[in-house]
C-alpha cells in the first residue's frame, strides 16, 4: 500500500451513470501520489479539451454543464469516460465509466380487455423500455390499485395479477411508467367478472410461465408463474439441475411467483414452475433460465517490484467475474505491445519482462473487463542500476563440436572486473521464445563452457553476463551457431517368409531414428558380392515385399535410414526359403473341413485323455493306501503269515496259493520238526516291519522266503489281492504223529512264482 500511494494511485474513480437531458453531470476522479500530478480526461479514447460545456474542476473531477444526448453538430455526451494521472514515476488510467442518457420509449405492450368468470384469474401486462428502468404502477378507475389486497399482485416488469375474482374487481385498468426522463400512461383496459363460481372440473393449466432473465449480482429477479384449474392448482418451484433453491432471499409473490433478492452467481440456472392438481400427480410445467452476471473484480493485484538490470520482472494479475473477464495490460497508459522480451501468459494473467533495462521502468496496469463492468490495478517496475558493475563480457564465440555439442568461449569484461564472482551463460534455441531460455553458471576463472545435450541440426543463441555481489553486468553480444547434422540410427528389421519365392521385410518407425528422409533396402544371394538395390522407400513406409527369389539359396537383406547428412548404419538379416519349400512338399494343402473335424476329434481325445489320467492317479493313490493298510494287518499276524510252508510247484498249480491256510496243529508240527527262524534272520528279511521286536515265537523258515523278491511281495501286495483257499485233504497217508505224510521239500529254486 505504501508503494502504491507514495508513487501514483487512484483514490476515487469515475463510475457508470445515467444522465438527464439538459442537466449537469459530474464525473469524479481523485488521485494520490508524489506531486506534481497531472490529471486529464478522455471520452472514447480521445482527449477532452476544456470548453464551456465540459471542463475539469480543481479536484480533478469532470463537469458537464448541460448534458445532451445529441448536439447540433451531431456529437453526443454519451460514451465511455476515463481519467488519466501522471507524475515523474509514470502514468495511470482509471476504469472506464459508461455514461448513458436517461430515456423512455412509448409503451409497446398495453393492457387488454378481459372477461373472466368469478373465482378465476385475471392478468394485465404493459411493457415499456427506458433508462433507468421505469417504475410501473397500476390504476383502477383512475385510482392507484390497493396493494394491501392480497389478491392483487404487482410484478416489477409491469404485470398485474388478480386471483379469486369477485364482482367488485370489475373496472377499468391502466398503468403508469415513471423514471427520471419522463412519465407515461398506457391505454385503458376493462375487466369484466361474469357469472358465479363454477364447480366443473378443469385440468391444471399454466397461463404464463417464467421468462429468461439476465441480471447482475445484487439485483432482484422475479420469475412469474400463474396457473388456473378447478380445483385451484398448487404451484411449486424447482431447479432443473436438482440443486435446492434455498430459503435465504427467496419469497413467493401472490399465488406462485418466485422472487429472489440480492442475486449471486450461484443463483444462475434453469427454474421449473409446476402446477399440481391437489391430491394427485397431474401436473403441468414451464421453465425459464436465469443468468446472473458479476462485474470483474481482482483476486490478486499486481505488486510493485524492483529488479536489477538484466534480470526478469514478473507481474501477476488474477481477476474473476461472470462472464470471465478479459485482461489487458497498459504501460504508462498505453496498450502494452508484446515482443521477444515482453511476454503474456495464462490468459494474460502473467506479464513477464526478460532482460530488463532502464527503458522498461514504468507503471504497468492490469485492466479487467466484462459485460457487467470493469476494474483496474497498477504496479510500478523500478530498474536497479549499481555504479561500478562490470562491463559486458567480450569476444563471445561459439564453435560447433558435434551434432549435440557446442563450445562457447569469451573474454573478461574491460572494466570493473575485481568484484566478479562468476559468469552466467544464457542458452536458447534460436527459434524458441525468450522464456524458453536456460542458464549455466561458470566460475570466474573459466572463460569457456562446453554445452552438451543439444539437438542436431539446430541453431542456438548464446550470450554471457558477469555477476558481482551487487548485481549483473549488461548482456554481451549474442552469438548464434548451429549444431552439426546427424545421420539416422539403425532401424529395427524383421523378415517374414510369405511363400517359396517371396519374403516381407518390415520395420518399426521410431523417434530414435532421428530426422530421416527415407530408407534404402538391399538384398543379395549370400554367395554373391553384388547387392540388388538400393530400393528407395519413403520415411512413412514400414514394409516391403521382395519377390521372385530362388528357394534353393540363402539371402541377405540389408536396411538403412538416410537423410541429408548421409546414410545411417544398416541392419542385416539372413533368410532361407528352403524350409518353406520342404514344408510345402511334406504338408499338402489342407482340407479345411477335414481339418476342422480333426481338430474337434483331437480336442475330444485330449479331454478323454485328461479324464483317464486323473482316474489312473486316483487308482494309484487308492492302491498305495490299501497296500499300506494291508501291510499293517500282516504285521499284526506276522507269525501266522510267515509260517506258511513252501508248496512244490506241482501242488501249487493244482491247489493254488495257500496263505495262512494251515491249521494250528500242522503249524505246531512244523515248529517241532522244522528249523526255527533266528530273530536276526527275521530282522534281515523284514527290516521295515514294525512288528519285528514283538515276535516271541519261532517261525518256520523256507529257503524261498529268504529271497528279497518275496519280501517285497509280502510287504507291498494288498490283502485284497490274495485268495484264501481252503486246503484240500491230503490223499497221502499220515505219519504216526498225525501230520501230513509228505512235508514239502524245500525249493531251492526261484521263489517268486505264483
UniProtKB/TrEMBL annotation:
Ranges annotated as biased composition (Polar residues): 644-654, 691-704
Any one of the GO CC terms: membrane
Chief localization: membrane
Name used for this protein in its record: Immunoglobulin superfamily DCC subclass member 3
Domain Fibronectin type-III residue range list: 392-486, 487-583
KW Membrane (keyword) present: yes
Topological relation to the membrane, as annotated: Single-pass membrane protein
Organism: Leucopsar rothschildi (Bali myna)
Boundaries of every Ig-like domain copy: 8-100, 105-192, 204-287, 295-382
Family membership noted in the UniProt record: Belongs to the immunoglobulin superfamily. DCC family.
PANTHER family the record matches: IMMUNOGLOBULIN SUPERFAMILY DCC SUBCLASS MEMBER 3, PROTEIN SIDEKICK
Transmembrane annotation, as ranges: 606-626
Record's keyword terms, sorted: Disulfide bond, Glycoprotein, Immunoglobulin domain, Membrane, Repeat, Signal, Transmembrane, Transmembrane helix
Domain of life where this protein originates: Eukaryota
Gene: Igdcc3
Region (Disordered): 644-674, 689-754
Basic and acidic residues: bias regions: 663-673
An annotated GO BP: cell-cell adhesion
Localisation per UniProt entry: Membrane
Amino acid at each position: 500500500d505504501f508503494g502504491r500511494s507514495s508513487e501514483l494511485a487512484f483514490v476515487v474513480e469515475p463510475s457508470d451513470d445515467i444522465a438527464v437531458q439538459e442537466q449537469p453531470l459530474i464525473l469524479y476522479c481523485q488521485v494520490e501520489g508524489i506531486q506534481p500530478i497531472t490529471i486529464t480526461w478522455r471520452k472514447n479514447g480521445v482527449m477532452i479539451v476544456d470548453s464551456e460545456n465540459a471542463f475539469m474542476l480543481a479536484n480533478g473531477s469532470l463537469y458537464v454543464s448541460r448534458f445532451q444526448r445529441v448536439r447540433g453538430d451531431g456529437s453526443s455526451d454519451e460514451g465511455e469516460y476515463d481519467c488519466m494521472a501522471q507524475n515523474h514515476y509514470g502514468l495511470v488510467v482509471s476504469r472506464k465509466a459508461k455514461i448513458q442518457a436517461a430515456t423512455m420509449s412509448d409503451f409497446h405492450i398495453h393492457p387488454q380487455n378481459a372477461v373472466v368468470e368469478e373465482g378465476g384469474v385475471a392478468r394485465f401486462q404493459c411493457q415499456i423500455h427506458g433508462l433507468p428502468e421505469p417504475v410501473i404502477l397500476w390504476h383502477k378507475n383512475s385510482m392507484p390499485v390497493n396493494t394491501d389486497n392480497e389478491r392483487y399482485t404487482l410484478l416489477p416488469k409491469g404485470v398485474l395479477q388478480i386471483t379469486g375474482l369477485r364482482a367488485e374487481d370489475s373496472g377499468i385498468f391502466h398503468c403508469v411508467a415513471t423514471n427520471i426522463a419522463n412519465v407515461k400512461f398506457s391505454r385503458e383496459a376493462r375487466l369484466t367478472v361474469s357469472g358465479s363460481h363454477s364447480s366443473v372440473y378443469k385440468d391444471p393449466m399454466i397461463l404464463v410461465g417464467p421468462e429468461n432473465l439476465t441480471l447482475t449480482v445484487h439485483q432482484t429477479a422475479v420469475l412469474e408463474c400463474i396457473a388456473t384449474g378447478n380445483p385451484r392448482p398448487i404451484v411449486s418451484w424447482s431447479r432443473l439441475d436438482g440443486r435446492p433453491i434455498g430459503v435465504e432471499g427467496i419469497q413467493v409473490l401472490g399465488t406462485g411467483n418466485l422472487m429472489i433478492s440480492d442475486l449471486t452467481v450461484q443463483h444462475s440456472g434453469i427454474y421449473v414452475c409446476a402446477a399440481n392438481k391437489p391430491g394427485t400427480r397431474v401436473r403441468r410445467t414451464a421453465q425459464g433460465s436465469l443468468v446472473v452476471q458479476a462485474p470483474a473484480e481482482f483476486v490478486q493485484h499486481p505488486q510493485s517490484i524492483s529488479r536489477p538490470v538484466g534480470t526478469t520482472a514478473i507481474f501477476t494479475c488474477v481477476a474473476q467475474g461472470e462472464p470471465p473477464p478479459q485482461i489487458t495490460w497498459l504501460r504508462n497508459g498505453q496498450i502494452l505491445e508484446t515482443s521477444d522480451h515482453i511476454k503474456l501468459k495464462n490468459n494474460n494473467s502473467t506479464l513477464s519482462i526478460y532482460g530488463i533495462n532502464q527503458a522498461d521502468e514504468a507503471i504497468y496496469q492490469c485492466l479487467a473487463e466484462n459485460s457487467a463492468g470493469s476494474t483496474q490495478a497498477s504496479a510500478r517496475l523500478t530498474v536497479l542500476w549499481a555504479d561500478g558493475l562490470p562491463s559486458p563480457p567480450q569476444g563471445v564465440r561459439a564453435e560447433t563440436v558435434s551434432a549435440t555439442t557446442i563450445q562457447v568461449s569469451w573474454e573478461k569484461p574491460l572494466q570493473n572486473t575485481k568484484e566478479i564472482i562468476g559468469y552466467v551463460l544464457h542458452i536458447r534455441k534460436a527459434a524458441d521464445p525468450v522464456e524458453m531460455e536456460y542458464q549455466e553458471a561458470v566460475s570466474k576463472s573459466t572463460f569457456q563452457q562446453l554445452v552438451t545435450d543439444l539437438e542436431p541440426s539446430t541453431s542456438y543463441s548464446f550470450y554471457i553476463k558477469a555477476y558481482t555481489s551487487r548485481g549483473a553486468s549488461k548482456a554481451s553480444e549474442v552469438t548464434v551457431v548451429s549444431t552439426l547434422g546427424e545421420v539416422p540410427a539403425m532401424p529395427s528389421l524383421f523378415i517374414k517368409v510369405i511363400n517359396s519365392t517371396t519374403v516381407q521385410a518390415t520395420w518399426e518407425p521410431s523417434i530414435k531414428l532421428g530426422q530421416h528422409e527415407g530408407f534404402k533396402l538391399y538384398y543379395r544371394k549370400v554367395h554373391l558380392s553384388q547387392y540388388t538395390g538400393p530400393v528407395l522407400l519413403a520415411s512413412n513406409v514400414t514394409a516391403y515385399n521382395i519377390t521372385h527369389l530362388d528357394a534353393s539359396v540363402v539371402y541377405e537383406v540389408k536396411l538403412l535410414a538416410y537423410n541429408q547428412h548421409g546414410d545411417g548404419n544398416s541392419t542385416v538379416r539372413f533368410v532361407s526359403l528352403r524350409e518353406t519349400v520342404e514344408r510345402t512338399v511334406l504338408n499338402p494343402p489342407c482340407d479345411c473341413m477335414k481339418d476342422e473335424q480333426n481338430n474337434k476329434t483331437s480336442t475330444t481325445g485330449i479331454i478323454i485323455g485328461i479324464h483317464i489320467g486323473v482316474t489312473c492317479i486316483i487308482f494309484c493313490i487308492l492302491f498305495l493306501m490299501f497296500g499300506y493298510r494291508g501291510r499293517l494287518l500282516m504285521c499284526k499276524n506276522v507269525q501266522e503269515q510267515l509260517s506258511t510252508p513252501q508248496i512244490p510247484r506241482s501242488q501249487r498249480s493244482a491247489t493254488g496259493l495257500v496263505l495262512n491256510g494251515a491249521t494250528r496243529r500242522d503249524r505246531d508240527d512244523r515248529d517241532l520238526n522244522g528249523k526255527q527262524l533266528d530273530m536276526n534272520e527275521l530282522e534281515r528279511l523284514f527290516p521295515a516291519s514294525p512288528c519285528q521286536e514283538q515276535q516271541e515265537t519261532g517261525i518256520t523258515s523256507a529257503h524261498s522266503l529268504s529271497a528279497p523278491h518275496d519280501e517285497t511281495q509280502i510287504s507291498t501286495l494288498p490283502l485284497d489281492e490274495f485268495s484264501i483257499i481252503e486246503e484240500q485233504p491230503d490223499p497221502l497217508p499220515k505219519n504216526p504223529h498225525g501230520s501230513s505224510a509228505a512235508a514239502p521239500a524245500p525249493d531251492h529254486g526261484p521263489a517268486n512264482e505264483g
